[in-house]
Write a structure and sequence with these properties.
By secondary structure, this protein is α/β, with parallel strands linked by helices. It contains 14 helices and ten strands. Bound molecules: S-adenosylmethionine. S-adenosylmethionine binds next to α3, α5, β3 and α7.
Length: 379
């Protein structure tokens, strides 16, 4: 079966894999730790939030999801973007928060391949009053992305069977989307909890999808890029100082992910990557890498900026050296990154580290929501 866009109002029923645990003795042992934190995961857990047993491990806690939704809505990579595509919808942690940023997105699309998890996400979105603000797609996001590019190239078919009606429905949805208005958010599975034991998480070994696979799925296939450059050359004559468009992405990854691997994704000349650590109670839960979507192929602006930076840092280095010579043995040793690339990533990561506790919410609105939910729950 290929991916299926659910029709307006179409809901997958909760099934035997979807649970709302109310007592500790109902909860499988390996989930108990998460269940104890259920209200930090979903503030309205008691209003019948449902999860599959595996969704407990991957769901983004509500305060983190809220903060990401807020950051993403105003981030420079989101400029001009009106459609948000969540490739790995899960039980709805992130996608609900995106849909709650009402007015920011014309459309929020959630893709999830596991039917029971999607049923939970739809149900949870209903608890948060945003069920009908989300376009739900059941299926493999890689297949959807292949189709996304296929529709733009006017070729390609879905790899497997499935009803023609579903394919048309998906093609219609994808054809409606303007590439320059789309922003992709991805919170892929991290391959279980073993990532915690690693000092630096190797993203090339992330399972079942590594960083490169994810990135490739979201990047315009090379031949189309070439085509685009040729068109610019023909139109303008001379060499292409083209704006090569890739799909911008926000990637939700383990907190200790290898930043050099993330940096390597973006070609020379592209704007810098922001990496933000999202923390709860003083500890990082995960990072989000905000990747720039448009590349100045000539890299002129970026070259100018780095030249200026180089000059400045040479001067700074000279000053520093003189100071160090003066201070001699008293100089305090410092851990400096060894390469420019490393330095730039380290700089970005430090600049953007964003510790936070409880997100500020509008209390009146919160009370109103609670009352509304309570009365609908009692009815
Ligand atoms: C880490 S969870 C996402 C959690 C989600 N952000 C949330 O807050 O609830 C990853 C999800 O991706 C789904 N998934 C895995 N492979 C997929 C694929 N190829 N296409 C779509 N969904 C996929 C899994 O079933 C799982 O629910």
């Amino acid at each position: 079966m290929g991916p299926k866009v659910l029709k307006k109002g179409e809901k997958f029923p909760l099934d035997e894999n979807c649970h709302h645990y109310t007592k500790l003795n109902e909860v499988p042992w390996d989930i108990q730790k998460y269940w104890h934190q259920r209200f930090s995961i979903f503030e309205f857990y008691d209003y019948d939030i449902h999860l599959t047993d595996s969704a407990w491990f991957g769901v983004t806690p509500e305060p983190v999801a809220t903060r990401i939704a807020r950051d993403l809505s105003t981030h420079p990579i989101a400029q001009g973007k009106r459609v948000l595509i969540d490739l790995f919808g899960g039980a709805g942690g992130n996608v609900i928060a995106f849909a709650l940023s009402s007015g920011r997105w014309d459309r929020v699309i959630a893709i999830e391949k596991d039917r029971s998890t999607l049923a939970c996400a739809q149900h949870n979105a209903e608890v948060y009053d945003v069920y009908d603000k989300i376009t739900w797609v059941h299926g493999d996001c890689f297949e959807v992305m292949r189709r996304f590019w296929g529709v733009r190239l006017g070729k390609g078919t879905m790899s497997d069977g499935g009803p023609e009606e579903d394919k048309e429905e998906l093609d219609d949805l994808l054809a409606e989307l303007k590439l320059e208005e789309c922003l992709v958010f991805a919170s892929p599975p991290w391959g279980g909890v073993s990532y915690r034991d690693q000092e630096v998480f190797d993203l090339s070994k992330m399972e079942p999808y590594n960083l490169e696979q994810l990135y490739e799925a979201c990047t315009m296939p090379e031949h189309e890029e070439e085509e685009k450059k040729k068109q610019v050359e023909q139109k303008e004559g001379g060499s292409a100082q083209a704006q090569t468009q890739i799909l911008p992405q926000a990637l939700f990854l383990p907190r200790q992910s290898d930043l050099n691997q993330i940096a390597a994704l973006v070609p020379d000349g592209a704007p810098k990557i922001d990496v933000v650590q999202y923390c709860q109670k003083g500890a990082s839960k995960a990072l989000v890498a905000y990747l720039p979507g448009t590349i100045d192929a000539g890299g002129k602006e970026e070259k100018k900026r780095s030249e200026a930076k180089k000059q400045l840092s040479e001067e700074e280095r000279g000053q520093k050296k003189r100071k160090q010579d003066d201070e001699q043995e008293q100089a305090v040793p410092k851990l400096l990154p060894e390469t420019t690339e490393e330095a730039s990533v380290a700089y970005d990561a430090q600049e953007d580290v964003d510790l936070y506790d409880t997100p500020k919410t509008d209390n009146a609105e919160k009370r109103k929501r609670k009352r509304r939910r309570r009365s609908s729950h009692n009815n």
